[in-house]
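Appendix B, Record 12. Input sequence as logged:
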Amino acid sequence: MTLSLEGYRSYEKKRIEFGEAVTVVVGPNAIGKTNILEGLRLISVGESFRAGRIEEMVRFGEVMGRLEVLIEDAGEEIKLSVILTRGEMGGKRVAKRRYLINDVGKKKEDFVGMLPTVVFRPEDLELMDGSPSLRRKWFDGVLVQEKGEYRRSLMAYEKALRRRNRVLEAVREGEVSKYQLTFWDGLVIKHGQVITELRERLVGYINDVFSRSDLFDGLRIEYDKSLINERRIKQYEREEIMAGHTLVGPHKDDFVVVSVDGGERDLSVYGSRGEQRMAVLGLKMGELLYLEEALKKKVVLLLDDVFSELDEEHAVEVHRVMLERQVVVTTTNEDDLSGLENVKVIKLEE
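Logged structural output:
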């Protein structure tokens, strides 16, 4: 796998050839190690794991950034590209993001999932005690990598939700009749139920992984789903019109990880930092296994300076998982990977 970066973040131009097994990117803080993982993840799911706005990823002073990955799929070499802009080039408005496969433009839904990845960062601890939107984003980051129903339903649901919310505002202001909601009600119900069903399937799979693991036995995900159906839409109709937005549906979903040892403790509230790290590692291991079973191929594991956050037992578990697939690791300390064989080291220097 080869990654080329141009006009992206801190890189004017950079080409990186990764090893067949573990590649360790070593360098001091703020040298651009995480930018490499962000680029791979962007090509994987079409979204950054940290940029609030697309233009943040375009190198300062540039009007366009380009990222390319060469991968092999079923013995065929494939080039995946993402082009980033600030929304304007040559005085004309342009798309801020474009996706290409072998230099042919593609829709996002046809591009995402070509390079399946799981990323694990210290910031992922926010999955435990951060906002529900982070946990919904985690759901989406896993499930959009499966080509098919979830991705189509998520896009259709988000579009219908925006339109329905605009109609709710218009009904509240007396501009239209509430009966104009009927069409959008049907769409959000149809696609919302698909999203809920597939999120439930993911949760069930990971809970089964937990139950069969010596390390994660005792953990369980409790999925707090906001069901959407005709009865609930009718139940909340008055409140939704007053609020001007939709109050039920998967955009309101959440989950918690609980420890079932000695009672059911919500680890976001009652867990120690060590227990929360264990829970996040468990989520990532479950995510990895789920995608590999669903896609019938190995997933690229992206580890961003995680060993400084893990105790010895959990570091050993990560090392074990790394032996079985292609991995890209960033670290300030090469010794974090001591004992591993077939490791390629890339050193970034100021």
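The longest strand covers residues 64-73.
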